[in-house]
From TrEMBL:
Residues 90-136 form the F-box domain. PANTHER family: F-BOX FAMILY PROTEIN (PTHR10706), F-BOX ONLY PROTEIN 31 (PTHR10706:SF130). CDD domains: F-box_FBXO31 (cd22102). Pathway: Protein modification; protein ubiquitination. The lineage of its organism: Eukaryota, Metazoa, Chordata, Craniata, Vertebrata. GO terms for biological process: SCF-dependent proteasomal ubiquitin-dependent protein catabolic process. It comes from the Eukaryota. Residues 12-93, 268-295, 444-466 are annotated as: Disordered. GO terms for cellular component: SCF ubiquitin ligase complex. Belongs to the FBXO31 family. This is F-box domain-containing protein. Pfam families: Cyclin_D1_bind, F-box-like. Keywords: Ubl conjugation pathway.
Length: 562
């Protein structure tokens, strides 16, 4: 047992036992034999027994190979010392050079390192090495290599430009913590590890409107960025981001949560993580959200940020009502929200295109964010942001990939009735073909009296790789500029409903795949066209563990707003 403990680096070391032996000898206690000496003598006896004797047989010691042949797996150190003048092999983990221990400990997860520090004083001292914790921060949380630089920006610039752009140079030293005295171990122990559960993608509970929150490690901070679609109708523009909260360390090595909502800079906030895959934010100083001009100034500022225009520039009366309704509904929360975790869909080799997040046009409701995923022979688009008619979490598009549509020539594509008839014929042909196939199988079984398989249906004409595309006349489109060639088309349905998600129903449509990052949907009965463009942002800590977990998440999303 003592040998096993010494090999694992646990328990009393040989140096301590040797010192204890010398003290006992100095006190006249010569009766106790050193454990190492006893092991050496036992090893010599075993080697003599296996080697065939002692000095008479010409064999005095046993080499390493002899020890392996004995099956003990233990090399006799005493015999090696008498025959070899080279360096001794380490008999325990604690005897390894410090640089090897640093490399070994760097491979362990950060949650295991505190237990390693309890083994011995040497391990505890080595775990103070900055290299170990820097590697854990980089591999587990994607932190940059330099703790005090992000994208070539110093820690001071990070605070001023990214987190609090209103800080003046004279007030800087009062607000900026002393990051120069922090190390990776402090950041990992007091910031990253305690809040690791909130990293990733989340959907806020804002009634029918939903949203998309991405919590990431950004330099010396954990920041919750709310992703906003581009201004309508520029669907191919990049996403806009707005910070809602941040978490960072102070000189006392304690983490602090601050609310970033409003126009007066960061202020005191709180985060609660009670349930699994759910957390809540609370602002403790909501007066920071108010503006001197009252609600009218707040509405004008919100409208310019949300839509990029003034109310006078929006001539559509129904659209003005929708915008005012959204402002009143969303501003009442004051950044006191509950968030539920969402995942990106897993990718399969058979997918028509890479699944993920897309932003698309929805008429007077503006741009909304959807999640495209594949489930066997169907492609589904689920809303992450919604509107009073079809709220977030609902299945906005359901495409049947087993029903491809071959587009006619351009002159026939301009006719909405012709295109609708072609799509509906494709939808009904599949069911008719199945009925005919089943009837033929029953007839063959009646004639032959055997369970012979039914004849295979004739293969449909496969569409070309790329074909010209044009919208039919009379179809409304928010984007006048859209792709003029497409790869494939499929029959699908879209979800429509009245205000308050009343009388929901699915209406026929045509799914048009333009390229790897864009697709469209023609709402045939509504005579409307929606264009979707992929989100190109890097979203870490957001992929579903498996397909079963992703489908369960989709079911929960629909129940949140149903």
């Amino acid at each position: 047992m003592a040998v096993c403990a010494r090999l694992c680096g646990v328990g009393q070391s040989r140096r301590c036992r040797r010192r204890q032996q010398q003290n006992q000898q100095g006190q006249g206690s010569d009766s106790d034999m050193d454990e190492e000496e006893e092991e050496r003598i036992v090893g010599l006896k075993q080697s003599d027994a296996v080697g065939g004797g002692g000095p008479e047989s010409g064999t005095a010691t046993a080499g390493p190979s002899d020890a392996c042949e004995n099956g003990s797996g233990h090399v006799n150190r005493g015999s090696l010392d008498s025959t070899s003048t080279g360096p001794q092999h380490p008999q325990s983990l604690a005897e390894l050079p410090p640089e090897l221990l640093v490399e070994t400990f760097s491979l362990l997860p950060g949650t295991a390192l505190p237990n390693v520090a309890l083994v011995c004083k040497k391990f505890r001292q080595i775990l103070n090495t900055e290299t170990i914790w820097r590697r854990r921060c980089m591999e587990e949380f994607g932190m940059k290599e330099n703790l005090r630089e992000v994208e070539g920006v110093s820690s001071r610039d990070i605070y001023v430009k990214r987190v609090n752009p209103r800080v003046k140079s004279g007030r800087f030293m009062k607000l900026l913590p002393d990051y120069e005295h922090m190390d990776y171990r402090d950041v990992y122990t007091h910031l990253l590890h305690p809040y690791r559960q909130i990293l990733g993608l989340w959907q806020p509970d804002i009634g029918p409107y939903g949203g998309l929150l991405n919590v990431v490690v950004d330099g010396l901070f954990i920041i919750g960025w709310m992703y906003l679609p581009p201004h309508d109708p520029r669907v191919e523009d990049p996403m806009r981001r707005r910070p809602l909260f941040r978490i960072h360390l102070w000189e006392s090595k304690t983490s602090t949560v601050e609310c970033m909502y409003g126009h007066k800079g960061p202020h005191k906030g709180d985060i609660q993580t009670g349930k699994k895959d759910e957390f809540s934010t609370k602002c403790s100083q909501t007066d920071h959200h108010r503006m001197p001009g009252g609600r009218q100034e707040e509405f004008r500022t919100w409208l310019e940020e949300e839509w990029g225009r003034t109310l006078e520039e929006i001539f559509h009366e129904h659209m003005q009502e929708l915008i005012l309704m959204k402002f009143i509904y969303t501003s009442q929360y004051d950044n006191c929200l509950t968030y539920r975790r969402i995942y990106l869909p897993p990718t399969m080799p058979s997918d028509l295109l890479r699944p993920g997040l897309f932003k698309g046009t929805y008429g007077s409701h503006g741009l909304e964010i959807v999640m495209l995923s594949f489930h066997g022979n169907s492609a589904r688009a689920t809303k992450l942001t919604g509107d009073p008619n079809v709220p977030a979490g609902q299945l906005t598009l359901d495409v049947d990939l087993s029903r491809p549509v071959v587009l006619p020539e351009l002159k026939h594509q301009r006719n909405i009735e012709e295109l609708s008839r072609l799509a509906m014929d494709t939808a009904t042909a599949e069911g008719a073909c199945s009925d005919v196939t089943a009837a033929e199988g029953v007839e063959a079984e009646r004639v032959t009296g055997t369970d012979s398989p039914p004849p295979e249906p004739s293969s449909s004409i496969s569409p070309p790789e790329s074909q010209p595309f044009v919208l039919p006349l009379g179809v409304m489109a928010r984007n006048e500029v859209y792709p003029r060639t497409c790869r494939k088309c499929f029959y699908g349905t879209g979800l429509i409903a009245g205000h308050g998600f009343t009388s929901p129903e699915r209406t026929p449509g045509l799914f048009v795949l333009f390229d790897a990052d864009r697709f469209g949907f023609i709402w045939l009965e509504l005579k409307s066209f929606s264009l979707y463009s992929r989100l190109t942002d890097n979203l870490a800590h957001s992929y579903a563990p498996n397909m079963e977990g992703f489908e369960a998440m989709l079911g929960n999303m629909q129940s949140w707003t149903s």
